[in-house]
Amino acid sequence: MKIALIAHDEKKPQMARLAAAYREILRGHELFATGHTGKVVADATGLTVKCFNSGPLGGDQEIGALIAQNKMDLVIFLRDPLTAQPHEPDVNALIRLADVYDTPLATNFGTAEVLLRGLDAGFVDFRQLVNGDESKHEHYE
């Protein structure tokens, strides 16, 4: 599963804590991130993270392109609704794309935890539900 990680500047420490707490779950997946967020996560966890450009240079748009190509399975975008700076990525475009392509997107720590725990428990197979064999998921009907 491909997981994208993005965090506004004030939320990068929280992203590091989230990634460290869920390192064992994240280890089994392909991680992508905007530039600085990816470095923060890699430093906090030792996990491999494919880093795109930083947010101000279009990294969030690179992730958005993967969502639009239906190649991203989950997005965690820890946004700062109170003190976000003008140079930081705007979550609205990613939320729209995630809704269009049925890609789960968490914008806060609590929702991110629920998605990661569901992923770990095997309750959630987003890619299969969106693109795959629906018969494997009869219990969702």
TrEMBL record:
Enzyme class: lyase
Positions bound to substrate: 8, 12, 54-55, 87
Pfam families with a match to the protein in the record: MGS
GO MF annotations, alphabetized: methylglyoxal synthase activity
Catalytic activity, EC: 4.2.3.3
Keywords in alphabetical order: Lyase
Record's catalysed reaction(s): dihydroxyacetone phosphate = methylglyoxal + phosphate
Gene3D superfamilies: Methylglyoxal synthase-like domain
Record-annotated active site: 60 (proton donor/acceptor)
InterPro entries membership: Methylgl_synth, Methylglyoxal_synth_AS, MGS-like_dom, MGS-like_dom_sf
CDD domains: MGS
MGS-like domain: residues covered: 1-141
Family classification: Belongs to the methylglyoxal synthase family.
Record function comment: Catalyzes the formation of methylglyoxal from dihydroxyacetone phosphate.
Name of this chain's protein: Methylglyoxal synthase
Biological source species: Loigolactobacillus jiayinensis
